[in-house]
Design goal:
By secondary structure, the protein is mostly helical. Helices cover 69% and strands 0% of the residues. The protein is globular. 34% of the residues are buried.
Length: 190
Amino acid sequence: MKLRKKVLEVLNSKLPKELYYHNVRHILDVFKVVNQYIRRDKIDKKSAYLLRIGALLHDIGFITTKIEHEEKGTEIAKELMSQFGYPEEDIKIVQGLIRATKVPQYPQNKLERILCDSDLDYLGRKDFYEISDQLYRELKEASIVSNVDEWNKLQIKFLESHEYHTDFAKKNRQPNKEKRILEIKKLISN
């Protein structure tokens, strides 16, 4: 996959260093989770290929902006995919995948639902705190939050408003996400 190599090259060289969460590690985590969905849901070869491209490109807009990065990402995706000769139809599907990850998420089809749930899979996983600590660090450095208490309140608001879209995530991630909400609420009340 020549495109994958090019995308990782671009991400590794151009993503701002202060992105402790929205970095290559996150993108590769989403890519890994997408692959688990592909196997589990027996996604056809062509859809699987586009889903993998969407996973790799979903946060590429961060190389130029933190605001509306999804929209910028769709432009970069079109540019990169065109360089590799992808048909317009495939580019439009990948652009839809990227747009679907914008929070709040409103996926319009199965592939978009899979990418959205892969993007926020960690919310219901054992490594939740480890990953959310990276996001806290990123948001603190960007002056979006100023302390842990403020961060915890923001997390509760986000976790309570977030919804999973696939049956797998509803069954296997939602219960753990509910536990995180209770744990973080206890931290605030203490």
